[in-house]
UniProtKB/TrEMBL annotation:
Its EC number is 3.2.1.1. Ca(2+) 3 binds at residue 405. The lineage of its organism: Bacteria, Pseudomonadati, Bacteroidota, Flavobacteriia, Flavobacteriales. One of its GO terms (biological process) is carbohydrate metabolic process. Its cofactor is Ca(2+). This is Alpha-amylase.
Length: 479
């Protein structure tokens, strides 16, 4: 009987061992198959440091620097309510934005424009009228008074956030008729009567003039500023009491969003930045990454990543996430790329939640559109993504897998922060996939809460994760 029991025990042990080996073989096979399906793409190669917009030094503010870098809020949309209430509306939201981790706001053009109380500011008349002169049919701008603007800027700085001014340097509007010796006609180029008495302009300051017939581009038939003219350079960025330095040193703006930079050469922004300083980003509306990157380097400025914007639109709404492998500005030059899902000019992406999950887990400087955050999307989910960006989206980027419906990427961590893995699923069913992390024998979790799994990575760093339909999950070490 003892010998028979021994044989049974031995047989049982062999079967258990065989089962154990088969299970391990299954895991290895699955891991190998997963690796073979997609060759990992190391998208960026740098030391992993986050995007920087400059140092926030107010240690009493609510917003503090974070491992993932900053998030910007575009604090307006086209045709915000007129009547001079907008500065106060934004002011009332600053503390809440700061509390959830938004580090900066971008304001619309702040100076008086031709259309007075109805203008969104993109037809500037007097760069020094912030709603304090009776000009163009109003004292206040569409957004409010100078006092209200200054109160808003002070509130932003109290919260240790930054505030960026939208600068329209290509064209002016609202001048008076004058005889133009360069065209032989009358043109609306007489700005000598601006109420502030500063930056007076005549036909000599606009194309066509003694310096040439045109520059890179004109807009809407408005008088086209000639930046080669010494008077224009002096008043825009050289003089201590000129536009740039007055906005920075007196109005206390921290940086600039430059409108329609296709209208003039990049040296204009380069000279502005060299003389004035502050964060800067240009609106070069083009999906060509080479143009975006060349402009950013030549202007010494960040640039909006329109390449990323259009690729996201094609990928998410066109149902082909393989497109996310294509070139984008954040891949080419992550420290000069400002990413976005929508803005006041263009709003084409339908699957916005997936797009925000993408830009808030990837490199570059992500921008949130006011309407998306305050009105159209789930604010709780947006706040969660902002938190994940700030706390987990660190290091350079590797794409682990893509197909038409699935996209998985890894942020590789920086300075002790473990980074993350983001899984985006554009299909109508739950998806699961084995992927390789940077973490050995570590329990991970989905910080969005969309998955309740708490898997542990294997010794070779592989782990299976899941993603909900038409959604995303974002994984990192559970700590």
């Amino acid at each position: 009987m003892k010998k028979q029991k021994f044989k049974i025990c031995l047989l049982t042990a062999l079967l258990v061992g065989l089962y154990s080996c088969n299970s391990n073989d299954d895991f290895v096979t699955n891991s190998t198959e997963a690796a073979a399906q997609f060759k990992v793409i190391n998208v960026t190669n740098h030391d992993g440091r986050p995007f920087s917009t400059g140092k926030q030094s107010n240690t009493t503010g609510r917003y503090v620097a974070n491992p993932g870098g900053g998030v910007m809020m575009q604090a307006f949309y086209w045709d915000v309510p007129a009547g001079g209430t907008w500065w106060n509306t934004v002011n009332s939201k600053i503390t809440a934005w700061s509390n959830v981790g938004i580090g900066s706001i971008w304001l619309p053009p702040v100076s008086k424009a031709q259309n007075g109380p109805f203008s969104m500011g993109y037809d500037p008349t007097d760069y020094f009228d912030f709603g304090n002169y009776n000009q163009n049919g109003t004292v206040e701008t569409r957004f409010g008074s100078r006092t209200e603007l200054e109160s808003l800027i002070t509130k932003v700085h109290t919260e240790n956030m930054q505030v960026y001014a939208d600068m329209v340097l290509n064209h002016n509007s609202g001048g008076q008729l004058e005889n133009n010796p360069f065209t032989g006609t009358q043109t609306y180029t007489n700005f000598t009567g601006v109420a502030s008495g500063k930056f007076k302009r005549t036909s000599a300051d606009f194309y066509k003039n003694s310096y040439g017939n045109n520059d890179e581009g004109a807009f809407g038939g408005f008088p086209d500023l000639a930046h080669v003219v010494p008077n224009v350079q002096d008043w825009l960025w050289k003089r201590t009491d000129g536009v740039g330095k007055y906005y920075k040193n007196t109005m206390k703006f921290d940086g600039w969003r430059f409108d329609y930079v296709k209208g003039f050469a990049p040296w204009v922004i380069k000279d502005w930045n060299a003389n004035v300083g502050g964060f800067s980003v240009g609106e070069l509306w083009d999906s060509n990454v080479n143009l975006l990157n060349d402009w950013a380097n030549n202007a010494n400025s960040s640039v909006f990543d329109f390449a990323c914007y259009y690729k996201m639109n094609d990928a998410f709404d066109g149902n082909n996430l393989n497109i996310l492998n294509d070139d984008m500005m954040w891949k080419r030059n992550p420290y000069k790329a400002v990413t976005f899902v929508a803005n006041h000019d263009t709003d084409e992406i339908w699957k916005k939640e997936l797009a925000y999950a993408y830009i808030l887990t990837h490199e570059g400087y992500p921008t949130i559109f006011y309407k998306d955050y305050e009105e159209w999307l789930n604010k709780t989910k947006m706040n969660n993504l902002i938190w994940i960006h700030n706390q987990k989206a660190t290091g350079n980027t590797s794409i682990l897998f893509t197909d038409t419906d699935e996209y998985i990427a890894r942020r590789n961590g920086y300075n002790g922060n473990p980074g993350l893995v983001v899984y985006i699923n554009n299909s109508s069913t739950w998806q699961e996939r084995w992927i390789q992390t940077n973490w050995t024998n570590a329990q991970i979790k989905d910080f969005t809460g969309n998955s309740t799994w708490l898997p542990t990575t294997q010794g070779d760093k592989w782990v299976k994760i899941q993603c909900p339909p038409n959604g995303y999950s974002i994984w990192s070490i559970n700590m």
